[in-house]
């Protein structure tokens, strides 16, 4: 049955994380953080997100993921991926990854990695999840493996923090952008329901960062957070 998950073999799951050029990252924080501080924050959140993914890959849990790949045009991000022990794929079309190019980049990466429509489940995960926990990701993945396309809606209720394509002949068909949750649902993705605050808490604004801090930041993001002297309600940090 199309979209049904295979039950006769363990699931192989490839997580893809797309990261834009660092010079273009988190522009909504420009009023509060300098360009260098924004870069430090983006890099820290990426490191913490990848650390969780590596933990979900290297765990003895049978629900574990099997591969992680970062797709990016940025050589610094590529080097961070290597340091973290995950794969790297240059943006296949050599475009700058932004909101308009993210969907094409993910689709090209899915094709380049040989996962599209095959015996491998694919997850497109946001790179700015500094409060993510391994257990949250594996629990959501367990629900997603029931088959087909599915999403985890972000903390705003309008965005998508994770997109899953599980089962034979299932592709990501990403619809990231404004109101991506609604776009994914309209295209047939089902919504996964679970208590996964860290998985839902992506960071685009200072308020998002403070919310993530209340959940508990990963060590890299916590170090940047403390260095900047972040205090809720303070817009200018430096």
Automatic annotation (TrEMBL):
Residues reported to bind phosphoenolpyruvate: 160, 177, 180
Catalysed reactions, semicolon-separated: phosphoenolpyruvate + GTP + H(+) = enolpyruvoyl-2-diphospho-5'-guanosine + diphosphate
Principal EC category: transferase
Gene3D superfamilies, per database record: Spore Coat Polysaccharide Biosynthesis Protein SpsA, Chain A
Pfam families (UniProt xref): CofC (PF01983)
Xref: NCBIfam families: F420_cofC (TIGR03552)
Record function comment: Guanylyltransferase that catalyzes the activation of phosphoenolpyruvate (PEP) as enolpyruvoyl-2-diphospho-5'-guanosine, via the condensation of PEP with GTP. It is involved in the biosynthesis of coenzyme F420, a hydride carrier cofactor.
HAMAP family: CofC
Record-given protein name: Phosphoenolpyruvate guanylyltransferase
Lineage: Bacteria, Bacillati, Actinomycetota, Actinomycetes, Mycobacteriales
